[in-house]
Design a protein that fits this description.
It is a single chain. This protein is α/β, with parallel strands linked by helices. The chain has two domains: 220 residues, Alpha-beta prism (UDP-n-acetylglucosamine1-carboxyvinyl-transferase, Chain), CATH 3.65.10.10; 205 residues, UDP-n-acetylglucosamine1-carboxyvinyl-transferase, Chain, CATH 3.65.10.10. It has 13 helices and 27 strands. Strands 4, 5, 6, 17 and 18 form a five-stranded mixed β-sheet that branches. Helix 1 runs parallel beside helix 2 and helix 7 packs parallel to helix 10. The longest helix is centred in the middle third of the chain and has 13 residues. The protein binds shikimate-3-phosphate.
């Protein structure tokens, strides 16, 4: 089904996807487990740390900060040095393509007694960092970034102070960055969020939160010490999303996705797809290392269009690219609004998906904050681009399975950022 020549994949129409899908471990949880282990006291163990590029960027930054990380067949062991266990890095810390690495690590570096610099690839260097510079500076941090973009230059601050900060954008990365900086600040730091975003940081650090009216207040005490833990990373719901859609839109499909993370701040796509008519069921729900997980089953169905906007957008932000593929195959119109944040991801995902799906014959009207997709048009073959974005590459791959002609995806290797085996898994499922 998928041929590879260098960085290009060619996809052909599938007659049905059947089987069990081997998904990668959750990227968001993995970054946090490694970062939190590094500042804990004692040796933490992480079972199932992903080999994908983004989580590996976090490990290489931590190694440069003097953290000892060993791996064996079970997973990683990370020797934490407490809040003051880092050593000054000898060169810039390269976060690669990973926004989570850059934004969370910045929060941990502003309180250190040394200077540091964080750099990233072309995509990460074009993404907005003002959203972390503002709250970190309010806390007293010395952090500079020309034009609000990486490279970020951090110098030692005399002291950090706890703040109460209301998030101007719904962003778990900004929330986590501020809460982490709060560990090195005097007194208490509170982040206020009006729109719920993924809550892995709060869960994993055991932070207290209260909801008053429409606002959630999450607090951390400065100087709080963390103890080493054993983390077991579930499979990534955002990776499962490609197969929830593929299993729904490719006729004659039946897929089993075991051990998927089902944190309710991440799983809005299940509700959206079900509302569109998808056949998805969950079995064997359980809690592992503080996170809900379960086994997902999906089979083919006829989908119908839907209107989405408002609070759910933050919950499904990483899944919207693949949702647009489902929408293109659904009967009727799908309207996505309030999703302008998509323009600030690894690429402008509204523009990238509009271009790719239009090339294959879909009818899409791009809006400033979303898209209007008139579904039900037959997709045909064509050449599309990933724009070096893993989620665009994989979404276009799934579109290729329901297109009548060959779909050639340029820049397909971008999938390795979160799902290195994606193309092999697709081929195996047939
Ligand atoms: C992430 C949060 C989200 C998401 C990203 C991972 C995280 O970004 O898009 O892929 O791990 O905290 P924002 O919080 O900036 O929306």
């Amino acid at each position: 089904m998928a041929d590879s020549v260098e960085n290009v994949r060619v996809l052909r129409q599938s007659r049905g996807l059947v089987g069990t899908v081997n998904l990668p471990a959750d990227k968001s949880i993995a970054h946090r487990a490694a970062l939190f282990a590094a500042i804990s006291t004692g040796t933490s163990h992480i079972v199932g740390y992903p080999g994908s590029e983004d989580p590996q960027s976090t490990l290489s930054c931590l190694r440069q900060l003097g953290i000892q990380i060993n791996s064996d067949e079970v997973g990683l062991s990370i020797v934490g040095g407490g809040l003051n266990g880092f050593i000054a890095p000898e060169r810039a810390l390269d976060c690669g393509n990973s926004g989570t690495t850059m934004r969370l690590l910045s929060g941990m570096l502003v309180g250190q007694a040394f200077s540091s610099e964080l750099i990233g690839d072309a995509s990460l260097s074009s993404r907005p960092m003002g959203r972390i510079l503002d709250p970190l500076r309010l806390m007293g941090a010395h952090i500079e970034a020309a034009g609000g973009r990486a490279p970020l230059r951090i110098d030692q601050a005399s002291a950090l102070r706890g703040v109460e900060y209301q998030l101007p954008v719904a962003s778990a990365q900004v929330k986590s960055c501020v809460l982490l900086a709060g560990l090195w600040a005097d007194g208490e730091t509170t982040v206020i969020e009006e729109t719920p975003t993924r809550d892995h940081t709060e869960r994993m650090l055991g932070l207290s939160s209260v909801t008053i009216g429409s606002k959630r207040y999450i607090s951390v005490q400065g100087g709080r010490t963390l103890s080493a833990q054993m983390w077991s990373i579930p499979c990534d719901f955002s990776a499962a999303a490609f197969f929830l859609v593929a299993g729904s839109i490719v006729p004659n499909s039946a897929l089993h996705l075991p051990r998927v993370g089902l944190n309710p701040t991440r799983t809005g796509l299940i509700d959206v797809l079900k509302a569109m008519g998808a056949h998805i069921s969950i079995q064997n729900e359980r809690i592992v290392a503080g996170e809900p997980i379960g086994d997902l089953f999906v089979r083919s169905s006829q989908l119908t269009g839907i209107e989405i906007g408002g609070e759910i957008i933050a919950n499904i932000i990483d899944e919207i690219p693949i949702l647009t593929v489902a929408a293109a195959m659904a009967g009727g119109k799908t309207i996505i609004r309030d999703a302008e944040e998509l323009r600030f991801k690894e690429t402008d995902r509204i523009s990238a998906m509009s271009k790719g799906l239009t090339t294959l014959g879909a009818k899409i009207e791009e809006q400033k904050d979303g898209m209007i997709i008139t579904g039900g048009k037959k997709l045909h073959g064509g050449t599309v681009e990933s724009f070096s974005d893993h989620r665009i590459a994989m979404s276009m791959g799934i579109a290729g399975l329901v297109s009548s002609g060959e779909v050639r995806i340029e820049g397909a290797n971008a999938a390795s950022v979160s799902f290195p085996t994606f193309w092999d898994v697709l081929s195996e499922l047939g």
